[in-house]
């Protein structure tokens, strides 16, 4: 059941990113959430959410696929492919990334505590 719950959470997260749904995004990430972006930058929860709140990040498409989940008690690791079409501050930030999500389980269920994105293949266009 845990792997199915985590897969469902991944679908809700990806749909919320495309919709810019701050309520769902707030609900699916843990308080201490951190994102390590594809160029090595680190965003805390409020910085990550703020990109949507300000309109700086607009995601047109986000596929979260080929996901493998490993559960270790109240912690889980989900590794998959994050394929996106998006803009940040008007610049294209499209890319395909190998992504690792670290999830934690609390009394309300699973939450994403961290994400790490690594470009697959050539560097993404925005990094050249």
From TrEMBL:
SUPFAM superfamilies: NTF2-like (SSF54427). Transmembrane segments: none annotated. Pfam families: DUF4440. InterPro entries: DUF4440 (IPR027843), NTF2-like_dom_sf (IPR032710). Residues 6-112 form the DUF4440 domain. This is Nuclear transport factor 2 family protein.
């Amino acid at each position: 059941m845990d792997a199915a719950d985590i897969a469902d959470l991944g679908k809700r997260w990806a749909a919320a990113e495309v919709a810019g749904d701050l309520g769902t995004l707030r609900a699916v990430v843990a308080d201490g959430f951190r994102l390590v972006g594809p160029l090595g930058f680190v965003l805390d929860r409020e910085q990550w959410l703020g990109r949507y709140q300000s309109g700086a990040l607009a995601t047109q498409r986000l596929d979260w696929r080929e996901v493998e989940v490993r559960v270790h008690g109240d912690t889980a690791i989900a590794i998959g492919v994050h394929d996106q079409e998006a803009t940040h501050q008007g610049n294209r930030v499209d890319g395909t990334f190998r992504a690792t999500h670290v999830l934690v389980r609390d009394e309300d269920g699973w939450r994403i505590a961290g994400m790490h994105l690594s470009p697959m293949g050539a560097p993404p266009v925005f990094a050249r």
